[in-house]
Amino acid sequence: MAEPHIANQVRTLRFMAGEMTQAELGEKIGMTRQTIAAIEAGKYSPTLEAAFRIARVFGKPLEEVFQWEE
Predict the structure, then answer these.
(1) What is the domain range of residue 47?
(2) For residue 52, what is the domain's CATH number?
(3) For the stretch 33-65, what's the b/e string if a residue is b when 16 or more beta carbons lie within 10 angstroms of its beta carbon?
(4) Bridge partners, 8 (sequence order)
(5) Euclidean distance between CA atoms 36 and 68, whole angstroms
(6) Looking at the domain assignment, is residue 69 inside a domain?
(7) What is the pTM of this model?
(8) Number of domains observed in the structure of the chain
(9) What is the C-alpha separation between 44 and 46, in angstroms, rounded?
(10) I need a labelling partner for 65 at 20 to 30 A (CA). Which of 1, 38, 50, 52 fits?
(11) What is the per-residue pLDDT across 17-31, written as a single tens digit (0 to 9) for each?
């Protein structure tokens, strides 16, 4: 059985937001480009605060950016 994890649409949303870079997103929310890359790759789950900050940058509800997959 697969481990539950958090899927996300961060890469897609960055692309739709004028091809925003990982570094630009990181700067907006106070995280490094490497952390953004790890979140996008599903290797790292952001804190709840960081998840809300990311969603706010794109003007989306949290559930449109991050999905809990069991």
Answers:
(1) 5-61
(2) 1.10.260.40
(3) eebbbbbbeeeeebeeebbbbbbebbeeeeeeb
(4) 66
(5) 18
(6) no
(7) 0.89
(8) 1
(9) 6
(10) 1
(11) 999 999 999 999 999
